[in-house]
Design a protein that fits this description.
Strand content: 15-25%
Distance between the termini: 45 Å
Number of domains: 2
Largest sheet: 6 strands, parallel
CATH architecture of the largest domain: 3-Layer(aba) Sandwich
Helix content: 25-40%
Oligomer: single chain
Number of strands: 9
Radius of gyration: 19 Å
Structural class: alpha/beta
Number of helices: 10
CATH topology of the largest domain: Rossmann fold
CATH class of the largest domain: Alpha Beta
Bound molecules: adenosine monophosphate
Amino acid sequence: MQIARSVGEMRDARRQVQGSIGFVPTMGYLHAGHRSLIERAREECRTVVVSIFVNPLQFGPEEDYGRYPRDVPRDLALCEQAGVDVVFVPEVQDIYPMGAGTVLEVRGLQDRWEGASRLGHFQGVATVVAKLLSVVQPTRAYFGEKDYQQLQIVRRLAADLLLDLEIVGCPTIREPDGLAVSSRNVYLSAEARGRAMVLFRALTAAQDEVDAGEHSAAAVRATMRKTIESVQGVDLDYAEVVDPTTLEPLDTIDREARAIVAAGVDDVRLIDNTRLTPVGA
Ligand code: AMP
């Protein structure tokens, strides 16, 4: 396994490979979710590249950039074991040599939900993803449905910028009790982790209701809210039923939809989502 510690080294490594390249961008502190993306890339591509970069541009001034969990040696061991060919571990200076002069906007999509609560977040995501894709030049890039809005934004960015690659969305990996695996889960105390499970319970309740024939998005939304608000110490941000591509709120669930939720547990922001398929669709 090769380790590229700068943009120059990554470009050199890129020049040496032939055939398809699968790329998995991450912020490190790798877990089973990242691993599933790497495995998918390993199955589908000749060469697998993983990047580890905690992108300062996607964190707000009050957010956890400084304390975001990092363990590069452990990440490298996981990558090696998973059969990764190249790990790209750039410094902030490498990715923003002259600061953040050029910033990408994915208009509309960037302003809703996570974007409304985390101003500038998706501009940061879009900018770093475009930079990483430009350096790695993959055939396919793998993103988790866990960050569903991010996945839609990246798809839109790739389409709008006419990028010659495939964006592959991969299912959310969960703990046995349903909690979506996330690097930020380490912030949760054992007790808070118990409360955090309510996000998955709300999504499950939404799917159950749709399975039982409910078509009203308002009814399903109300069920999710009620579920989350029933747990003290969970601070609901949003629980919505949206179009799976535009992320605009729906009135009627008469085709595939997406339930999306966000809540704070202690000071930890958690997000989750699931597909909703109406009966007969
Ligand atoms: P992050 O390191 O949190 O920026 O995540 C890197 C990639 O892993 C993103 O595409 C995430 O959506 C994906 N990811 C994170 N958690 C999960 C999970 N539980 N299941 C599937 N993919 C995930």
